[in-house]
Amino acid sequence: TEMGQGLHVKTIQVASEILQIDINLIRISETATDKIPNASSTAGSVSSDLYGNATKLACQQINERLKSLREEFPEYNWFELISRAYYRRINLSAEGFYTTPHVEDVDFANNFASYPYFTTGCACSEVEIDTLTGDFHILRTDILMDFGLSMNPNIDVGQIE
């Protein structure tokens, strides 16, 4: 579920990179059980991993089917390539499915998840407090996060904030 965490943007970025097309050519529909009957929860960056990798797998299938056309018509843009593929009856539909490593280790009954998603961070705030009134002002906050290679730093900074 896209709930402001940038999942759709990240998924579009993956498709754009794998298909080698502009992000403006890609559209995403909201997730629904008629499309993905066994979708997973969106927690702990697991959705970026699941849907990003599933999108990657699906796009790789399409690329493999378009490979001969790309070699035959290297000057074609995306629209010409897809049109040619349509007339040659090349399947332009693909499904990707990705499984999180060690997902079988999750113990939902005891609310314990052992997903391989770890982030480390710390924060320090400088706050001015009026001890007589309790009034306070946050002067500054510094946050340091280490969560590996970011798919989209702008989105991740927003999530941290």
Overview of this structure, please?
With about 160 residues, the protein is α+β, with helices and mostly antiparallel strands. It is built from four helices and two strands; from the N terminus they run αααββα. Strands 1-2 form a two-stranded antiparallel sheet. α1 packs parallel to α2 (about 45-70). It is elongated, with a radius of gyration of 22 Å. The model has no long low-confidence stretch (mean pLDDT about 85).
Q: H/E series, N to C?
A: HHHEEH
Major β-sheet, in short? Answer: 2 strands, antiparallel
Number of strand elements: 2
- Please compute the radius of gyration using only Cα atoms: 22 Å
Mean pLDDT: 85
Distance between the termini: 20 Å
Helix content: 25-40%
Full CATH superfamily name of the largest domain? Aldehyde oxidase/xanthine dehydrogenase, molybdopterin binding domain
Spatially, the strands of the biggest sheet line up as 1-2
Secondary-structure-based class equals alpha+beta
Low-confidence stretches: none
Count of individual helical segments? 4
Pfam family, one: MoCoBD_2
Cofactor: Mo-molybdopterin; FAD; [2Fe-2S] cluster
GO molecular function: 2 iron, 2 sulfur cluster binding; iron ion binding; oxidoreductase activity
Family: Belongs to the xanthine dehydrogenase family.
List the helices and strands and how they pair.
Blueprint: H1 7-19, H2 46-72, H3 78-87, E1 120-129, E2 136-146, H4 153-160
Helix pairs in contact: 1-2
Question: What are the main properties of this structure?
Answer:
161 residues, alpha+beta, Aldehyde Oxidoreductase, domain 4, 2 domains, two-stranded antiparallel ribbon, elongated
